[in-house]
UniProtKB/TrEMBL annotation:
Signal peptide: none annotated. GO terms for molecular function: ADP binding. This is Putative NBS-LRR-like disease resistance candidate protein 2. GO terms for biological process: defense response. The lineage of its organism: Eukaryota, Viridiplantae, Streptophyta, Embryophyta, Tracheophyta. Residues 1-144 form the NB-ARC domain.
Length: 168
């Protein structure tokens, strides 16, 4: 984790969500599903997409709601998915949504995407050493490179954080 998947998905969401009739950004699906259960999260997603407070509370979505979803072009972001069941309950496949609908899924487990039949996978690459040091310096030293005596400490911090400057 920590490569910026959620940040990238959020930027895309902010940039294109106005092109859709219904939108939902569901953060921390893994953690939220453990706390509240998938049906609760699914009800929140449907409430946001249909812009009304829905508390279905059962695994099966009523037909009248399914029909409304099929007529709506929606944009959904499911963040930090780690289980195929989460995708089955929360997304169920694009066929249940209107034409032109899109779903972005962030995950650490590419196999979940393959099992769900995702047709486009974008992998976020980590920063190279110089980029990581620059970003760390931007945050830790307000844009300046570290003083020579702090450079070695900065490198140790980056190594400890596996090259992820924002995790440090």
């Amino acid at each position: 984790g920590g490569l910026g998947k959620t940040t990238i998905a959020g930027a895309v969401f902010n940039q294109i969500s106005s092109q859709f009739e219904g939108c939902c950004f569901s953060i921390n699906v893994r953690e939220e599903s453990e706390k509240y259960g998938l049906v609760h999260i699914r009800d929140q997603v449907l409430s946001q997409l249909l812009e009304e407070n829905l508390k279905i509370g059962t695994p099966v979505i009523p037909q009248y709601i399914q029909r409304r979803l099929q007529r709506k072009k929606v944009f959904i972001v499911l963040d930090d998915v780690n289980d195929l069941r989460q995708l089955e309950v929360l997304a169920g496949g694009l066929r249940q949504f209107g034409k032109g609908s899109r779903i972005i899924i962030t995950t650490r487990d590419k196999q979940v995407l393959h099992c769900f039949g995702v047709n486009g996978i974008y992998e976020v690459e980590g920063l190279n050493y110089n980029e990581a040091l620059q970003l760390f310096s931007d945050y830790a030293f307000k844009g300046n490179h570290p003083l020579e005596h702090l450079r070695e400490l900065s490198i140790k911090v980056l190594n400890f954080a596996n090259g992820n400057p924002l995790a440090a």
